[in-house]
Amino acid sequence: MESVRCNSCSNRVLVEKYSDAHTSIQWLDDADSVCPEFAKTRTDQDGRAWVPTCHKLQETIDDLIVSGQIGLSLRSYPVPGRLE
Fold this sequence. Notes:
Elements: E1 2-5, E2 12-19, E3 22-27, H1 31-34, H2 36-44, H3 55-66
Antiparallel strand pairs: 1-2, 2-3
């Protein structure tokens, strides 16, 4: 996984890209408390909103992919810890 810092809020996450449709994002801190976009959406909806992603973070990741700083990762098989 690659360390990525959001261009909007500077929050750091880990990112791995497996295909055009599959990007894995690992938040290193609680997303609700470190992401202003998550916090704003929750405030606007009285805390009831479910936010599937931060669009500003996704834009940052997309920019890094286009510039070649994040490439496609190959999964290792068999998956460690999995019994066949």
